[in-house]
Structures are given as structure tokens and as C-alpha cells.
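Sequence in, structure out. Go.
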Amino acid sequence: MKKIALFIIISILYAFVPIVAQNKRMSPDEFQAKQKAFIIEEAKLTPEEAARFFPLFFKLQAIKKAFMDKGWKSMRSLRDGNASESKYAQAVIQMYDSHIATDKLDRLYLSKYARILPYSKIYKIMHAEMDFHRQMLRSFHH
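Output:
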């Protein structure tokens, strides 16, 4: 259960990656490069594994970001607090639908990852990704 909650939090964090990158004067490409280097080091990926894994990984991240952006756009449209109950319902449901869609994508891509990496490396990648985002959040707050 803890892992599921952590993955949901990480999914939400993807919506904030551009904000973090902007405030620290880091471009999205720089962010990706740092993330890639961190994951390679932490998960001990070989150059061949990295070459096969990261195109899938970054494709998934882009798709997930698009889903989450849609959800957050819906939520931001209600900031003034003057929306109808049905508009609130639509926004909340849209956000949950975005989470469900990204969860399904994670599961789909897990099977793709498993075709090119052993599960032990996938496990290490998952932990490295969480650690990387924690470090980014810490650096954002300091």
C-alpha cells in the first residue's frame, strides 16, 4: 500500500517537474539527463540496457505528463471557487481518471521493460526514480 501511495505521489510530481526545472534554472532536457544518469548509476544499468530502456521510459513519462496536465488543468479551472457542484465533480473525476490512466500505462510499460531487463533491475530503477524525485524536492526547498 505504501508503494502504491508513493507511486501516486510520484505521478503527481511529474506535473511539477517543469516548475522545479524553471526555479532552479534547469531545462527539461537537463532534468532528464540528470535523472537518466542517476538511474543508470543507482540501478547499475549497462550501456546496452540503458540504450534500450530510456527511450521507453521517457516516452512513458511524456504520455503520463499529458494525462496529468489534463487533470491539473481541470482542477485549476476551479480556483476562483465559484463553480457549480457539477463542475467540481467533473474536475475531480477528471483527476482520478488521469491517475487511473497513468496507472494502466505503468502496468503496460512494466511488461515492455520486462522484455529488456530483469525484474531485479526494474526494481532498482523504481527505487532510483523515487530517490531522484525526493532529492529534487529537497533541493527545491533548500
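Check: Residues 2-141 form one domain. Residues 4-9, 18-22 have pLDDT under 50 and may be disordered.
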